[in-house]
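TICKET: design request
STATUS: open
ATTACHED STRUCTURE:
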């Protein structure tokens, strides 16, 4: 019998702590079996996952499969392939002063972890850290986002059918539930979401000095230098921006374009939008919808902060906003001060690189940074001078897909990183040992 309705956070954590101390989750064979079980459950529930994403935000089928199911399976396969290597004790050199001795690093699971997932990629951004937690040998409580309710229900059902609650448990609920969970003594907390909520989670973790990974967001700039191919640049920017209708933490938040190429870029933007979504974007099968009315209203207000160059169609009842290019001249407007998280792309003109550096400094340490340039000096200067989590040169979004690259922010955009080996490391303590 499943007792998710009567389990309190205290009972859940106590049961998992007991299970962890019994040592089963630390065994490599157990971890492999758990990863395989998760993979089978995702494949088995594929249709339910796709339906939930359609219910929550009308997410297009191809987008749902590629960014949610496909990427998780890829992440699990990568962990299964490399788990033995990651978990192996590692010999490092001892110094002459300590001769004769052996020096060893052991990867030790933290214990009982809490994962708080977001609503925008409810499966991928909840299950990917879970893959790291399982691979590293932890027990785990998973709190999916209540803002995507259909997905939250499927996540709970999938986890309940696959694992015992004393090992991995999904808890549904609102912000109060998340707060109540994060107040408990966990050994690791992994949170994806907004900076505002990230600060609250960090305060709760501080009470117990709990290790924390925060995946936040911010205003990720996209800089377009003169001398690039305008059409190819426009195509790559719009793909990254309007995937999941802009509801992505690493979407290009705004574009700064060199004055010499601005006109050509605008022409290319209009051509690309028509190629991608046709003349009536609302009928396009490739565009989802805004998650809820609160976000719709927030986004609608941004349209007053500039001049609409393309798009700008709205349907409040259907929570639809067409992909929109917005020319902006004032960096003090709300659209240039808050993370947009929707299908509106502000464009600002620049003529000197100092203007770019000054504009990015107004919203420092973005999660992602994108630069389109063929000039080596410009690339070296901006990449060297601007602090950011990760990014691309002459592309957008794609660094996120490579599990050999650590994904994470810094400062305002987060703490720590994950994906592939880095997910395993996020949920492991490196234990140093000197043997005489």
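STATUS: resolved
RESOLUTION: sequence designed for all positions
ATTACHED SEQUENCE:
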């Amino acid at each position: 019998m499943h007792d998710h309705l009567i389990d309190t956070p205290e009972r859940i954590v106590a049961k998992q702590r007991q299970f962890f101390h019994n040592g089963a989750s630390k065994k490599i064979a157990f971890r492999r079996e758990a990863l395989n079980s998760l993979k089978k459950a995702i494949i088995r529930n594929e249709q339910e996952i796709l339906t939930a994403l359609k219910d929550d935000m009308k997410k297009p089928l191809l987008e749902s499969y590629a960014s949610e199911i496909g990427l998780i399976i890829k992440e699990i396969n990568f962990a299964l392939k490399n788990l033995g290597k990651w978990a192996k004790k590692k010999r490092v050199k001892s110094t002459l002063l300590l001769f004769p001795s052996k020096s060893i690093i052991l990867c030790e699971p933290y214990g009982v972890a809490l994962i708080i997932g977001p609503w925008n990629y409810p499966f991928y951004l909840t299950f990917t850290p879970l893959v790291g937690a399982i691979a590293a040998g932890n027990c785990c409580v998973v709190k999916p986002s209540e803002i995507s309710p259909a997905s939250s229900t499927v996540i709970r059902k999938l986890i309940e059918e696959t694992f015992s609650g004393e090992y991995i448990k999904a808890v549904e609920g609102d912000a109060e539930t998340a707060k109540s969970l994060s107040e408990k003594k966990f050994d690791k907390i992994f949170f994806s979401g907004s900076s505002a909520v990230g600060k609250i989670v960090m305060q709760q973790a501080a009470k117990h000095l709990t290790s924390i990974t925060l995946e936040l967001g911010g205003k990720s700039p996209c800089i377009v230098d003169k001398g690039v191919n305008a059409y190819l640049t426009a195509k790559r920017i719009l793909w990254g921006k309007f995937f999941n209708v802009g509801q992505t933490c690493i979407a290009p938040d705004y574009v700064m374009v060199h004055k010499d190429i601005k006109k050509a870029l605008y022409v290319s933007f209009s051509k690309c939008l028509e190629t991608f979504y046709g003349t009536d974007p609302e009928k396009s099968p490739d565009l989802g919808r805004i998650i809820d009315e609160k976000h719709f209203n927030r986004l609608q207000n941004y349209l007053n902060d500039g001049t609409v160059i393309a798009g700008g169609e709205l349907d409040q009842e259907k929570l639809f906003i067409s992909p929109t290019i917005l020319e902006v001249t004032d960096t003090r407007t709300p659209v240039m001060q808050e993370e947009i998280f929707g299908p509106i792309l502000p464009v600002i003109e620049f003529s000197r690189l100092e203007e770019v550096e000054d504009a990015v400094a107004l919203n420092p340490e973005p999660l992602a940074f994108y630069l389109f340039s063929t000039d080596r000096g410009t690339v070296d200067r901006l990449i060297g001078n601007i602090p950011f989590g990760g990014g691309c040169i002459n592309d957008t979004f794609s660094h996120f897909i490579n599990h050999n690259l650590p994904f994470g922010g810094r400062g305002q955009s987060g703490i720590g990183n994950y994906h592939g080996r880095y997910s395993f490391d996020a949920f492991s303590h490196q234990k140093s040992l000197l043997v005489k």
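CLOSING REMARK: The mean pLDDT is 96. The first strand starts at residue 90 and ends at 92.
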